[in-house]
Amino acid sequence: MQPGTVRAADSVLVQDGGVREPDPDLLIDLQDVHLRRGGATLVGPLSWRVELDERWVVLGPNGAGKTSLLRLAAAQEFPSAGSAHILGEVMGRVDTSELRPRIGLSSSALAARIPGEETVFDLVISAGYAVLGRWRESYDRMDVDRAHELLESLGAEHLADRMYGTLSEGERKRVLIARALMTDPELLLLDEPAAGLDLGGREDLVARLAVLAADPDAPATVLVTHHVEEIPPGFSHALLLSEGGVVAQGLIDDVITAENLSAAFRQSIALDAVDGRYFARRSRVAGRHRA
Ligand SMILES: Nc1ncnc2c1ncn2[C@@H]1O[C@H](COP(=O)(O)OP(=O)(O)OP(=O)(O)O)[C@@H](O)[C@H]1O
């Protein structure tokens, strides 16, 4: 490697002198990013900016690149090309182990690593150490109170002493969000938080996420989903992905439209918006997506 260069990805060297300066108002700032693995382009070309008080939904069909994009935002992947600034830090120059505790993440990949015998309370409080499960860490009264408060705000306080493996899917999702919030993160990333929930569980979670979205002290949030019905009221922006690329992004009402959904999902989609919620179904009008 030449002096003055940093390795930003397996295949890309970025000249130190040529790195963009981070904008402190942007929590996520991706510019002309590609993420490639095994000869395939998972994401890109894509540019995306998330500001401090924004609540984003990332929506798209299976395989669109949503989880891959979230992994870039979570500082778990480096772009193969382009530049990525996360929480004002230049990816490739920052120690990601210091960056990750500032990001709250709830995902099925994390859920799969949780031992079934872990108690709910330990799972939440141990987030501060970025570990799964308690070992010999010590926690002060404030940590204990915060863990209880978060569990209560997500309707899971009564589960505090239960083993994670005994929880229902809906209970698990709520507990994982409590854990993601435990470190008071600057950025909250939720990958399909309503996946696997029944109608009641989904509606309960959507209502709780709407309360979080309306809280001015809550972190900037990015929620990944396949379904417009899972978008909580109060979310401000949307990014619609298809085959790794952007179909549309910006203010939510401009992006979540029948035309854009039809293009992303490659079939004619009809959309209703009621009380800040969206509802989609296949349209009988053929060919809308081709337009
Ligand atoms: N390590 C990898 N190597 C090659 N291809 C990969 C790798 N990881 C993911 N992919 C592919 O990249 C594409 C995007 O995957 P990703 O999981 O980001 O999509 P997604 O939108 O989250 O999908 P889903 O909604 O089904 O969860 C998929 O086609 C997937 O098979």
UniProtKB/TrEMBL annotation:
One Pfam match: ABC_tran
Domain of life: Bacteria
Gene3D superfamilies in UniProt: P-loop containing nucleotide triphosphate hydrolases (3.40.50.300)
Classification via InterPro entries: AAA+_ATPase (IPR003593), ABC_transporter-like_ATP-bd (IPR003439), Metal_Ion_Import_ABC (IPR050153), P-loop_NTPase (IPR027417)
Single GO molecular function: ATP binding
Domain ABC transporter: 28-268
Cross-referenced SUPFAM superfamilies: P-loop containing nucleoside triphosphate hydrolases (SSF52540)
UniProt keyword Nucleotide-binding, yes or no: yes
Keyword field: ATP-binding, Nucleotide-binding, Transport
Coiled coil: none
Family statement: Belongs to the ABC transporter superfamily.
Protein name in the entry: ABC transporter ATP-binding protein
Lineage, uppermost ranks: Bacteria, Bacillati, Actinomycetota, Actinomycetes, Mycobacteriales
